[in-house]
Write a structure and sequence with these properties.
This is AhpC/TSA family protein. GO terms for molecular function: antioxidant activity; oxidoreductase activity. Pfam families: AhpC-TSA. Strand 1 and strand 2 (about 30) form a beta hairpin. Helix content is about 30%, strand content about 15%. The protein starts with 19 loop residues before the first strand and ends with a helix. It has helices at about 50-70, 85-90, 105-110, 130-135, 150-160, 170-175, 215-220; strands at about 20-25, 30, 40-45, 75-80, 100, 120, 130, 185, 195-200. The protein has a domain at about 20-115 and about 165-220: Glutaredoxin (3-Layer(aba) Sandwich), CATH 3.40.30.10. The protein is built from seven helices and nine strands, in the order βββαβαβαββαααββα. The protein is globular. It has about 220 residues and is of the alpha/beta class. The strands form two sheets. The protein has a seven-stranded mixed β-sheet, covered by helices on one side. It has a two-stranded parallel ribbon with strand order 6-7.
């Protein structure tokens, strides 16, 4: 599969590339072409499971999976976590309705045009570079946090709350993909993007955000 080199994420009307990944929650491999010509697909391209915000986005996608299937839409969550680490996580935190795949090399993210932010000392060129100061100035205001916090502190608090211990696999993913931006793409039965939500627009104001259940379900109703 060739990597996507054009500017920015895939947009509505773009044909999604085929990607083939190792399945986490079942045996074998999963490919986008498995669905092409068959059913619409919501694909979520998330950071690794080391990211507590993405763990919450993944859980939210799992919670609407059954409702999506009732409308004829399949869903797939892709994580930047090595396969055995990911299988261990879902073994202890089962999400029966979730189909997930492992992509530690982030091939799918590149194919869909999602940038991997480079952290710099003082230069920001969104969405490709961001200074450490700019990143730390962001404030996470979640019900689970005692007060608004910068992303690093918020991650530590949420990891402790979740009982998630960073191991060597996670550290390798963080070293190369801590700035990986995430996105969700809704493909029609021909594999053409009809809707998307990514962290790319609005100069970083969408960072760590996610679409609402209502927005996702409304988009799904338009492709079936």
């Amino acid at each position: 599969m060739s990597e996507r080199h054009s500017e920015g994420p895939l947009q509505p009307g773009d044909r999604a590339p085929n990607i083939v990944l190792e399945a986490i929650t079942r045996d074998g491999k999963i490919a986008i072409d498995d669905y092409r010509g068959q059913k619409p697909l919501l694909i979520g391209l998330f950071r690794g499971l080391h990211c507590p915000f993405c763990r919450r986005h993944i859980a939210a996608q799992a919670q609407i999976d059954r409702a999506l299937r009732e409308r004829g839409v399949e869903s797939l969550a892709v994580v930047n976590t090595p396969i055995e680490r990911a299988r261990l996580y879902f073994r202890y935190r089962p999400m029966p309705d979730l189909l997930a795949a492992s992509d530690p090399e982030r091939t799918s993210h590149r194919a869909f045009g999602l940038p991997n932010l480079e952290f710099t000392e003082n230069q920001t060129e969104w969405p490709y570079k961001i200074s450490v100061g700019a990143a730390m100035s962001m404030k996470m205001d979640l019900p689970e946090l005692p007060e608004p916090m910068d992303p690093m502190t918020a991650s530590e608090v949420l990891n402790e709350k979740d009982g998630y211990e960073i191991n060597e696999d996670d550290e390798r993913m963080i070293a190369t993909g801590q700035g990986q931006l995430f996105g969700q793409f809704l493909l029609d039965r021909d594999g053409v993007v009809r809707w998307s939500f990514t962290e790319v627009p609005e100069g970083g104001r969408r960072m760590f955000g996610a679409p609402s259940r209502e927005e996702l379900m409304s988009a799904a109703e338009q492709v079936v």
